[in-house]
Write a structure and sequence with these properties.
227 residues; alpha+beta; 4-stranded antiparallel beta sheet; 8 strands
Amino acid sequence: MATSMTIKIICGLLALLIVVRLLGKKELSQITPFDFVYILVLGGLLEESVYDDKVTVWQVLAAIALWSLLIYSIEKIVQKFDITRQAVKGEPTVIIHDGELDIKALKKNKLESEQLRTMLRQQGIFSINEVKYGILEPSRQLSVLEYERSVPVTAEMLSIQPKEAALSYLVIDEGKIVGTILEKIGKSETWLKSELAKLGYTEISKIYYAEWSKNDGFTIRGMMNEV
């Protein structure tokens, strides 16, 4: 029994390491509820089988392999089809817009006011009055853009008036136009292609990452041929 248990633990650990490696690297803060669930299930499969003599090593590996294949397939589908991303991974939600708290968004995400205050304090912000935009990420982390008056003064600011803060939007992701984002900011694909053409980018499919903001315009990083 001890030998069987040892073999199961060793084989299970190696299998889990391979699976985690295949599914990609993520920091804890980037793990979504979906990611958390499949990690728990993977661990559960190994835990339950270790103490069950009727379950062989091959059955353990087969179960881990099947579960991992399903998760890997879902990850690929989510990457390929934007329409599935929101359903599986969720999407960022603006809960503070231009200083105004979106109560409907708070309730929809089951977030209480004190929880919000705690999340702000963790970022060194002790008053919602300092926040211009607050975005709840799919990982349940809060991203904050502060008002210009709340930003610490730098030597550069002593002689230069800081620009008004503005959100940036991911409009091209791995060579693909993010249509949902364009709709959100009231822009069209024709507008996007025209503006990028002015900057010398005529082939959207070759752009790996492009974001746009009202104040700074486009920021383009990486080309597909570099991947």
